[in-house]
Structure formats: C-alpha cells, structure tokens
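Training component of the fellowship. As part of building independent skills, the fellow (R.M.) carried out the full modelling exercise for a liganded target. The chosen ligand was zinc ion. The inputs are recorded below so that the supervisory panel can assess the work.
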Amino acid sequence: MAELIFIGTSSGKTTLNRFHSSILISTSNYNLLIDAGDGISKALLTQQVSYDVIDGILFSHLHPDHYTGMAALIVQMKMIERKKTLDVFINSELADVIRNFLIQSYLFPERIGFVIEYHQLTDNIKFNINDDISFIPRQNSHLSSVSKLDDYESQSFSSSSFLLSVDDKNIHYTSDVGEKNDLQLFRDKTIDCLISEVTHIKPEDIITAFDKSDLPGRIILTHICDDDLISLQKFILELPENLKEKIIIASDGLKIKL
Ligand SMILES: [Zn+2]
Ligand SMILES: [Zn+2]
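Fellow's submitted model of the complex:
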C-alpha cells in the first residue's frame, strides 16, 4: 500500500521543531521525494529514510526551503556509494539551475558515481513515472509578485502545484501558493486528498475553496510556521465535527496510508 511520509513540514522559516517542507511518496516499487530544501539530508536521517531508497525528486519551485538541500543530498548519496540512477523531475525552465548548482558545488556528473536523469516537465502535461505514480504540474501564482521586478526578466518564475495520482488516488499538492484561487487549479478532477500549505493562504480560505459536496476526503495542512500553530489548532477545533475529522495538521514524521 502506498504511503505518504512527511519528511519536513515547516514554512520558509527555520525552526527547531520542523524541517522545511518535503514529502516522500512511497510505493512498492518507487519512492518519490517532493522538494529538497535546506536541511533535507538531516531531515531524511531523522525520519530514518535511507538516501538510497529515493528513486526520484520532484521540484515545485526554487525557493531555498524547497531546493537548496539538493547539493548536500547528492554528496550524501555519493558517500554511501549509490549506484542507481536518480530521477529529477523539474519544470523545463528550471532544470539548468539544478544542473549548474551541482556543477558549481563540484558535483560533476562523471565524479558522483551514479547517473542523474533529468525529466523536464511541461505545464499541464501528465508525466507517468510508472503504473502506480503519475502527476500533472500546473503553474500557480506563488511567484507572481516577484516576477514583476524589472531587473530579473530573464529569470524563470515557474512555481507548480501538482495533481499526483498514486495507486488511483488523486492528491492535490499545492506546494507554495500565491492566493486562494490557486486552490482551484485542479477543480476539473476528483480530489481524494488535498495537501495544502498554510503560510501563504489562510486555513479558512482552504476550507471555503470547496463546496460541502466536493470537499476532498482528507485535507492535510503543512508548510507551517510554528508561530501560527496555536491559532491554526484553535481554528480547526472550532470547525463543525464533519469538517474537523477530515483535517490533519502535519508534523515531521507523519505517515498517511493512501
Ligand atoms: Zn516554502
Ligand atoms: Zn516558496
């Protein structure tokens, strides 16, 4: 049975209680890590996830809490003498940033001992990893405000949410969003599980984004700033019973069977 393991659940703020947001999707024949921000190697160690079991990494966007742990993670994989290929799934506009980041970190392809295979994603085009896992990336508005800065026009501001299909269950993973309309990105699909961040969107906007009839079976809240935790818990406690039972506030190490 497939399982979601919350490797980190923090916002961009570094705290002692949570690592930065990252989720491992574990199926019988593939382990997909979503995002690899600052501290990911230690986060995986803490959750007792061997570096070698990770088959692929899917990146949502290039804020430091989502990708800058990549180079350090490749070092750890090199040190354990990994041999199997590592897949990297990333928007086509961002792939060179990761490639160059590794080269600038002296992690040359011919020196690390295993192959990194880049799979460049096109917005809204479904990518099948295997029979059990596929996903559709769609652009969200997370980076819209910074993309208006004149001096950086040549830079990509790609930021994706994903509809992941795992063992026939549909998971809408928001990653980081810009505003509440980003919750509507996959409304043309049936969503079994919503994994939403709660730093750039209010919990009440997450709940009201759905009608009673089409509320996802489960809503997992992550990307949590610890300063907001008490008010978030209070908000959930005050919800009607039928809503409350659907919602989980994620913490590092949370495991959810799909
Ligand atoms: Zn973030
Ligand atoms: Zn972000």
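The panel noted the following from the submitted structure. The longest strand covers residues 133-139. Residues 70-79 form the longest helix (10 residues).
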